[in-house]
Amino acid sequence: MMEQFKAAVRGTETVASMRRRGLTVGENLHKGSGVVIDPDYLWLIHIGDNVAFAPYVQVFAHDDSLVPSLGLRRIAPVVIEDNVFVATRATILPGVRIGKGAAVIAGSVVSSDVPAGAVAGGNPARKFAEVASYMESLGEAIARAPCFGEEWTIRGGITDGMKEEMLQALNEAGEGFVV
To answer: Catalytic annotation on 62?
Structure first.
């Protein structure tokens, strides 16, 4: 039991193990390294289909901030609907619903609901765009920026010469994309 708890806190617990302990999760959950899904209240968390958590995302169905003063732990369900992306080091707090097709920006603290199709970010997270308009502006950026194929990655066998070429292109353009 202690090893299972350590794995949960480290973000290395398997989805199958979390399901056995009450997590409701749909198909195609991508869970990056170090993701922590509240090990104490898994049955209060529902994750839909095609959800992606980047590394070090945290999802909590409990809040201990009242323990020192009142001896109470606040608990509330968390619902993450289908086709949601949560970027690295974002924290999702109890009682939150993230709507279908939404995206949460890196480092955000989500303390209230995120509407379907919204891009939200900050501390506390606030909606700042619709995914559709964000993707449209991103498309314009992709058209202007250098794009690199899979061969330009470590897994794809990038060479030292390619690394230098990539860095030079990115220094000139400001950003680029791997497709």
So the answer is: yes
Residues 6+ apart with CB under 8 A from 44: 38, 61, 62, 75, 76, 77, 78, 94
- The full set of domains in the chain, from first to last, is 2-130 (2.160.10.10), 145-178 (no CATH)
- Spans in the chain with pLDDT lower than 70: 1-11
The whole-model pTM stands at 0.81
Choose, from 46, 62, 74, 127, the residue flagged as catalytic: 62
Per-residue pLDDT of 25-75, as tens digits, reads 999 999 999 999 999 999 999 999 999 999 999 999 999 888 888 988 999
Task: Identify the pLDDT of residue 22.
Answer: 95
